[in-house]
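Troubleshooting entry. The earlier prediction with adenosine monophosphate gave an output that would not parse, so I re-checked the input for stray whitespace and re-submitted. Clean input:
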Amino acid sequence: MRIDLHAHTTASDGTLTPAELVAAGAEAGLDVLAITDHDTTAGWAPAEQARPAGLVLVRGAELSCRWYGQVPAIPLHLLAYLFDPTAPALVAELARVRRGRVERAQRIVELLRADGVDVTWDEVHGYAAGGTVGRPHIARALIRAGLVADTDEAFEDRWLGERYRVPKEDTDVFEAVRLVRAAGGVPVFAHPKATKRGKVVPDSLIVDLAAAGLFGLEADHEAHSPAEREHVRGLATELGLVVTGSSDFHGTHKQVKLGAYTTEPAVYEAIVAAASGVPVLGA
Ligand code: AMP
Ligand code: FE
Ligand code: FE
Ligand code: ZN
């Protein structure tokens, strides 16, 4: 069984539509694929409709969170699987975070324009095409303007990584774990020790999150070094958390391929058994 529990579509900052994603999952030889767009479930229905027979679809999302235990607060990502997409408190919080993303992207565009950079909100908004707006959509405008060669360059410090970085409205990570659990979902900390993406949270936070209902840690991920993967595994063993591996596929704006990292069947089964929001499809 090949199981990939983290992938994005045009419902957020991926480049394949949800229908194209499930087709690509089957094509890549996956047995199980999770759709985990940033802060939205908008891709669920089209992915369900296009799901090829033989591919099990896990419906999920990747929640933009923040830990306020340190100043400045540290942003982090929480994967949430098989939650009820109509749970009112969670629905409201996702909508709030998405609105905050729009305002933040507009501010970034204003900062760029103030420095004479030829990008507009209309252009960026167009690239997001109705999905959750993110910095990759601004990166695309910078590429179009000929200012950077690719998304990675757009995330360097002189662009979106620092000079034009504006914090977004995230969810307090403890609140996020609570909301996901209350909606019958299963929360897994995405790439928790990816130091190359910026500041990471201390292990003590992961200890506290485990006590608060966190179910697992994503260890095998391209943004983790081999040492970071081992560290995450050790921590999971210590805390009784499951360990996942996944591609975090985004289509063409990242190099990583579907199924580049995978999750053990027993872990997948444990996640499904712990969930009560919605079932997996096609099992
Ligand atoms: P945002 O969610 O708007 O803060 O943008 C972060 C997203 O940009 C991440 O979810 C990644 O998918 C994407 N991304 C692409 N390249 C990079 C990079 N070099 N560093 C950080 N994020 C990146
Ligand atoms: Fe992303
Ligand atoms: Fe992430
Ligand atoms: Zn992701």
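This one parsed fine. The pocket of fe (iii) ion (ligand 2) is lined by residues 8, 13, 38, 134, 250 (CB under 6 Å).
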